[in-house]
Amino acid sequence: MSGTPVTLNMSAPTRGARGKPPRHFVDLTPEQRVEAVTALGEKPFRAKQLATHYFTHLTSDPAEMTDLPKASRDTLAAELFPPLLTAARTLQADGGTTVKTLWHLFDGAKVESVLMRYPNRSTLCVSSQAGCGMACPFCATGQLGLTRNLSTAEIVEQVRAAARSLADGEIPGGPTRLSNLVFMGMGEPLANYKAVMETVRRLVAPAPDGLGMSARNITVSTVGLVPAIEKLTNEGIPVTLAVSMHAPDDELRDTLVPVNTRWSVDQTLDAAYRYFQVTGRRVSIEYALIRDMNDHAWRADMLGEKLNARGKGWVHCNPIPLNPTPGSIWTASDPAVEAEFVARLRAHGIPTTIRDTRGSDIDGACGQLAADEEG
């Protein structure tokens, strides 16, 4: 595969071009960070100090960098930590353990992240694009169209903000660490391949050069960009791959996931299976259950058969009760239909778990807050 990002020309509109985010410390490799601080007249070791503040202490506030001379810290912060995200709205659910944030980016673009604390882990769902170009008709973000890709720093800043909130004990349950990350917010992660993979590298790099997270606790989702899945297969970073299927047959999936007209169900599943073969990492199959649309028992059988045709033990299926958007014709399946769908998959030996639908009372589906602001 070439090193160029995957580009797509889908039917959803692309908003007007916006400016490039200012250079941020996170966008730089450790070597480039040294070059950046020395270019500002500082000693090379300042780069490590700044990395420690950002990735270990989770701060970019010069007032907290007390081991740096005041004149130096103000200059370094101004040059290397430009503000990229501003929290515009914050909504809470589940007793404060689910927090959804609408961020305004430096150019006015809007993205969302959702922090979810569970008894044994804390998970952040991040956005990788402002809007999305995949045009899935049941998705709030898909109806916004694509504004632009996020930079590495804009994605990592979502992570840092959540990690700092957890470390400071702002989420009920006392101080804790961010353990899991899912690229399931706004946007198609593999359509912003370079920035997403650079983000993963920052997250898994050991302190002080990164957050020291486990790659196995990071999930990268895709609607099925086959060339990018193949590229991810060869990265050598054992993230979890999640494929949003939503239909096992091309006829329906062409409508629900328009990119399927380019890469079919079978091509997508073949690429996902290759990912498992090379990495040994079990693939997640995401399936939004939509009433009277894709929740038929025979479709569960078809999905189970297609998954088993490629091998055993390589997937885990996550049916997701659809979180409907206001005014949408799409709605969640009847609970009895959902139960039958799950039972059929399990009868085929497919490990199946209904996805937790946290945040439904705070417009939990990513894109809803941004859509509200867009009117």
UniProtKB/TrEMBL annotation:
InterPro entries in alphabetical order: Aldolase_TIM (IPR013785), Methyltransferase_A (IPR040072), RlmN_N (IPR048641), RNA_MTrfase_RlmN (IPR027492), rRNA_lsu_MTrfase_RlmN/Cfr (IPR004383), rSAM (IPR007197), rSAM_sf (IPR058240)
Cofactor(s) needed by this chain: [4Fe-4S] cluster
Cellular localisation: Cytoplasm
Xref: PROSITE patterns: RADICAL_SAM (PS51918)
Other noteworthy facts: Reaction proceeds by a ping-pong mechanism involving intermediate methylation of a conserved cysteine residue.
Family statement: Belongs to the radical SAM superfamily. RlmN family.
Protein name: Probable dual-specificity RNA methyltransferase RlmN
Annotated gene: rlmN
